[in-house]
Specification:
The complex is a heterotrimer of chains A (191), B (250) and C (322). Helices cover 26% and strands 17% of the residues of chain A. Chain A is an alpha+beta fold. Chain A is elongated and about 95 Å long. Chain B folds into two domains: 142 residues, Four Helix Bundle (Hemerythrin (Met), subunit A); 97 residues, no CATH class. Chain B has eight helices and two strands, in the order E-H-H-H-H-E-H-H-H-H. In chain B, helix 1 runs antiparallel to helix 2. Chain C is mostly helical and 322 residues long. In chain C, helix 3 runs parallel beside helix 10 and helix 10 crosses helix 11. The longest helix of chain C is centred in the first third of the chain and has 35 residues. Classes of the chains: A alpha+beta (191), B mainly alpha (250), C mainly alpha (322). Chain C: It comes from Streptomyces flavofungini. Chain C: It is found in: Cell membrane; Membrane. Chain C: It is a multi-pass membrane protein. Chain C: NDH-1 is composed of 14 different subunits. Subunits NuoA, H, J, K, L, M, N constitute the membrane sector of the complex.
């Protein structure tokens, strides 16, 4: 059956009229905070304790908006007679968010989990220079990074945790040779 | 003619009433605008001054309480004829500023024709009314009166005029038809050129219009209108081509 | 003296209506259009749901510099907005909103001819603007305006002639007074033709080819700024008021209502006008712009024959009744 002439026109009118009766999708942002997903990519936070100044992030950044300065320090040998180690110390870590295109490559590429996405997005400035966030500001963003999701109930303990606990247990065993107190701070799941 | 003619009222040209003064003033404005229309060197300004002249004429009709004629004057002349004129001017040539080449060589002939026409009109009016004085206390040219006068006493001239319009329409269709051998011309649809019922006289003449409609109503749905649409459309495209050319030359 | 006061009062009322109703319609358009598109529209100006947005716009327009292009024809350019706006003010004078002498600005014997004639004059403003701007986009806009006016004036007049034939008078109050309910189905085709042609004459979407922003920026109004631009916009919205009022008066029975008390006639007129204005906005939101050739075709191929058929029908029924 051919369509009735004008039915398309009527359908169009119906669509607009129906839309008018529905709730609008406008976000009234300054008055009402938007409901963003928890892992929204708003700003990049730096967990500088993890940073080893490997420079991978700065090198991979497509628009060169990460500035890193560092110097080397020598650490005296841990054990007597051992070799001195050299270590990179971070002097400056800055991200210019006026250049950043929020691709997230730096976060992906960081081998030591020093960079994180934070959902914060309200950091507009009136001066473009203010958009270059230095390390202390980047460190502050870390407090807004949500905690990593909990493990599944039956999941294996992460490798890092297991290794750390093993070392801690060993240390404890050395310091306190008595066998009764040894298993005291043992959490469950340690198998 | 049921004009209320005051038999021997003591009317004179001295001590004029306010309406009469207004009439003369508007008449002067109209005359001035008309003179500027034909003397100005700026084409579009001429058309706009024509608006003033025609509007002044409408006001004169109003002052003579011929309301219907006044509004039809505005509707047809200001609303349609001048718009058409401006349309034509803009399509072809409408530079801002003076156009010295816009003068025509047959100025004397035009002046002669204008004088002859004016003389004929003045003579007819003067001869018809002589010294009759029409009182305008109560409206003389209402739609009612105009309609009954037009269709009781002057039906024949009216119909003759409609034949004139019909001839103009036929002429327009003949002009807008493309010849058969022209490449790209859609002569097949335009071959049976017949007048379209889009006469603008419908505004002043509902009766005759309806009569004509009922005649052409059967055909108008089928072939005639599609053909008229075709011609107007093709005319449109050629006009826009022309507009492009005008743009380029400007 | 009393007469002068009466006239002054009427003019004042019409002027106030002329200044407020277009703003009301403009604000309604803001909000209705926004909600039809899933948005909220203006929310800040004036506090409550942005009710003062158009006032704020007016203040903004008034602050802007009044620029006349160097190559423009200065006087014509500056005169054009007034020519576009004033006719609608005059038309508003003649539209009766209630029965009796008190509910119309000025009783005009040949009312239909007056309103249609004066509305046609308004288009001259667009033509003048388009020509005088010394801008090719403006000139094209002016040309399109003229072509559109020539195409749509005819069906509009024919539709109005039909209702005048039905009522046996060309006076607007006379037509409303003669209105009967069964005219509604009888004149429905004429009403639609009149309304559509009027929309096209106002250059409202979907007939806004003369101001098609994606092609010719803003047509004849491209070079205008500040208050003169605002006057053109005001003319458009005043045109909506006038068109809806006229359609109400001519085809929808004006102050007649299904259970109308005698004193409430003007409410019915305003209500019908408002509904029509809503439809104008609704059509704008719903339909895309017609192409220039479609625009011309719609008038010559569809509206003119429909209007002629309506006139024929009106004549037949009228003769049959008599």
């Amino acid at each position: 059956m051919p369509p009735v002439p004008g039915s398309g026109l009527a359908k169009g009118l119906a669509v607009t009229l129906r839309t008018m009766t529905k709730k609008t999708v406008t976000e009234q942002y300054p008055e009402v905070q938007p409901e963003l997903p928890p892992r929204t990519r708003g700003v990049i936070g730096l967990f500088e304790e993890n940073c080893t100044v490997c420079m991978l992030c700065a090198r991979e950044c497509p628009d060169w908006c990460i500035y890193i300065d560092s110097h080397k320090e020598t650490v005296p040998a841990a054990a007597p007679g051992g070799r001195e180690r050299s270590r990179n110390v971070l002097d400056r870590f800055a991200i210019d968010f006026s250049l950043c295109m929020y691709c997230g490559i730096c976060i992906e590429v960081c081998p030591f989990d020093a960079l994180f996405w934070s959902p914060e997005f309200e950091y507009a400035e009136t001066d473009i220079h203010e958009l270059t966030h230095e390390r202390d500001k980047l460190r502050d963003w870390m407090w807004t990074v949500p905690a990593p999701p909990a493990l599944d109930p039956g999941a294996e303990e992460p490798k890092e945790l297991a290794a750390a606990r093993k070392a801690a247990d060993k240390l404890a065993a050395e310091q306190e040779p008595e066998p009764d107190t040894a298993p005291a701070p043992k959490p469950e799941g340690d198998e | 003619m049921n004009l209320h003619v005051a038999a021997d009222a003591p009317q004179g040209f001295l001590s004029p009433t306010g309406v009469e003064i207004a009439f003369v003033l508007v008449g002067l404005v109209t005359l001035g605008a008309a003179i500027i229309t034909v003397t100005t060197r700026q084409l579009v300004h001429a058309a706009l001054w024509l608006v003033v002249a025609l509007g002044g004429l409408a006001v004169e009709y109003l002052l003579l309480t011929a309301e219907f004629i006044a509004w039809v004057q505005v509707l047809i002349y200001v609303g349609s004829v001048v718009v058409l004129l401006l349309f034509g001017l803009m399509l072809t040539r409408a530079p801002i500023g003076r156009s010295p080449d816009a003068d025509s060589g047959n100025r004397p002939a035009a002046l002669a024709v204008a004088l002859a026409a004016a003389a004929a009109l003045v003579w007819v009016v003067v001869d018809a009314f002589r010294t009759q004085w029409i009182k305008l206390d109560k409206p003389q040219g209402t739609t009612d009166v105009t309609g009954s006068v037009l269709f009781r006493h002057w039906v024949l001239p009216f119909e003759a005029l409609s034949v004139l319009l019909l001839a103009a329409l036929v002429g327009a269709i003949v002009l807008s038809r493309k010849s058969k051998d022209e490449p790209g011309g859609n002569g097949r649809q335009n071959r049976n050129g017949r007048p379209t019922p889009k006469a603008p006289r419908a505004q002043s003449d509902p009766k005759a219009q309806s009569a004509q409609t009922s005649q052409s109503g059967q055909t108008s749905q089928s072939g005639q209108t599609s053909q008229s649409g075709q011609t107007s459309q093709s005319g449109q495209t050629s006009q826009s081509d022309q507009a492009d050319q005008t743009e380029r030359t400007r | 003296m009393n007469d002068a006061l009466d006239v002054a009062l009427r003019l004042l009322v019409v002027f106030v209506v002329f200044l407020t109703l277009p703003l009301v319609i403009g604000q309604t358009e803001h909000k209705v259009m926004a909600h039809m598109q899933g948005r909220l529209g203006p929310m800040y100006a004036g506090g409550f749901h942005g009710w003062a947005q158009l006032v704020a716009d007016g203040v903004k327009f008034a602050q802007k510099e009044d620029i006349v292009p160097a190559d423009a024809d200065r006087r014509v350019f500056q005169l054009a907005p007034a020519v576009a706006l004033l006719p609608y003010l005059l038309v508003l004078l003649a539209i009766p909103i209630g029965p009796g002498e008190g509910a119309v600005g000025e009783v005009i014997d040949a009312g239909i001819f007056f309103v249609l004639a004066v509305m046609g004059v308004g288009v001259l403003g667009s033509l003048m603007a388009g020509w005088a701007s010394a801008n090719k986009f403006s000139l094209l806009g002016g040309l399109r305006t003229a072509a559109q006016l020539l195409a749509y004036e005819l069906p509009m007049l024919l539709a109005a002639a039909s209702v005048a034939m039905a009522a046996g008078t060309v006076s607007l109050p006379g037509i409303v007074a003669a209105f009967e309910w069964w005219w509604l189905p009888w004149q429905i085709v004429g009403a639609i033709v009149f309304f559509v042609a009027g929309l096209a004459e106002l250059q409202r979407p979907p007939f806004d080819m003369p101001v098609a922003d994606s092609e010719i920026i803003f047509g004849a109004y491209t070079e205008y700024t500040g208050l003169r631009f605002a006057l053109f916009l005001l003319a458009e919205y005043a045109g909506i008021v006038v068109l809806c009022g006229l359609t109400t008066v001519l085809f929808l029975g004006g102050w007649h209502g299904p259970w109308g008390a005698d004193g409430l006639g003007w409410v019915w007129t305003l209500l019908k006008t408002a509904v029509l204005a809503f439809i104008v906005i609704w059509l704008r939101v719903t339909y895309p712009r017609l192409r220039e050739d479609q625009l011309q075709k719609l008038s010559w191929v569809l509206l003119v024959p429909l209007a002629l058929a309506q006139i024929a029908l009106t004549g037949i029924v009228k003769v049959a009744i008599n």
